[in-house]
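[Solved] Which block belongs to which protein?

Original post:
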Amino acid sequence: MDHRLLARLADGLPLASRPYAEIGRELDLSEDAVIGRIRRLAEGGVIRRFGLIVRHHELGYQANAMSVWDVPDDQVDALGTDLAAYPFVTLCYRRRRQLPRWPYNLFAMVHGKERSQVQSQVEQLNEQLALGHLPHHVLFSTKRYKQSAARFAGALSKAG
């Protein structure tokens, strides 16, 4: 039964006030049973992440950029937490540097209605968090890729 639930989740949650109840109706399960199965799949490592895909372009956000900084390793966690608190930062994470060509270890995705807004927001981050003195770069997206949920083909044998 869990493979049917995983397949249904891969298509996204229904836009409903009680999406798990609606999925339950589709699979002949109660809302509590759906939530319980999702919890067990997550605890068992079959589902590692449960998140939201926001289609920014459709919401009028035409510009986006990945901003990157080379932050001292002992400051990355604190600065990442501070960056993530800004409402226009939609994604923030740490990555290993790929020296010698790529010295950056802190990444933050910034979205805006237009390019100048994104540039202003990155300047705000640099100023308010005292990041401007660090090596950094702003990489604007030039192509839109289709976003989709993860597929669970490899997990089906574990899910039963």
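(Second protein starts here: sequence line, then its structure tokens.)
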Amino acid sequence: MVIYELFVRNFSEDGTFQAVEAGLDDIVALGADTLWLLPVHPSGRARSQGSHGSPFAVRDHMAVHPEHGTMEDFKRLVRACHDEGVRVVLDWVANHTAWDHPWIVAHPERYTRDRAGHITHPPGTSWTDVADLDYANDDVWRFMQNAMRFWVEEVGVDGFRCDYAEGIPKTFWAATVPMLKQVNPNLILLAKAGPPWLAEVGMTHFHSQDVLAALKRVFAEGASAQSLAEASSKEPSWMGAPSCRVRCSTTHDKTAWDAAPPVLFGGLKAAQCAQAIAHVLPGTPLLYSGQEVGSAQALSLVERTPIDWSTHPEMRLWTRTLLRARTSHPALVSGDVAFSGTDEVIVVHRTCDEGRGHVACLVANVTDKPVRVEVDLGTGIEARDIWTGWVAANVQDLEAHEVRLFVSDLG
């Protein structure tokens, strides 16, 4: 599975479902087969952030934002995705609502309240633009179950990215996930890595925060390349098989509130290097829209920031080559992983024996200086770089932030 994440508001100049449908061929051409859409619901304006408000401040869980189009437009997008073999994952915000949600006035008892009886934002957070729901109220529980079922059964979405899943009671997920899987047994449920019970209740994929944080420390703060291997190796076993771990070098949060990869990591080549490392590790690759053209924009979640698709169009081919190798070469699909290298270079070895030895080896210079490193692919193995076709040598001279991915049986 390769996930492509996008925010409808920023994907195009007009920010519509129709524009996403028009760009579907380009998404599929990259190798993506799963589309993760940030919340498509109407956004609240009361106490909102920015000019447009956050998509995570949901005003109506059963509707789509009128700026994006109609519900029929959205259903047509889902059908178009399915026709292309692409699954649709909808970002689902179950923990809170916008302050101008109808319940605020009609059903204040459905929210968490302080001692004075005032509705509160989620405790322990700075999310002042949303009101915290109270799952001790049966009506909240029942509504959220029915609403999620509606999107799966009536609209046809193939799963949910469950925002702040750990903020919802375990008992809710334990009851809701089996119900939803009766409708779609192959339902995708993605959550940030959090408490182990998220796996127990049926979440299928986890967004690994440790590797993402390690990438920032290495590229932006000068940490050793070997800390990436440590972060990957220390991931908890409760996350399940390696394929359950979502791998990326940025997401909507990072690009909006921190910086886009070319800015965060120190240039376009550094951003490509970080992306290649993330996508070669065992797991499910994720690409955030704009990465395929090396966008340096801080794509806002509360303002309209259309992606400039003309930035580095040549990078599409680089990305497509990486993802096609990632999803087709046996060593990269399911091979074992081992690490070597130096403080400046991480070497990721992937090996798989399916009738004969398959080998993949990523060599990445995480610094802004040229380096030399020795690489051992094994006796009698010829491997070529997926981008240049160069044959691997035991000694590699790498330019600043240069990355190479050598695979056996190229082509």
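Accepted answer:
You had them paired correctly. Confirming on the second one: Residues 335-408 form a domain with the Immunoglobulin-like fold (CATH 2.60.40.1180).
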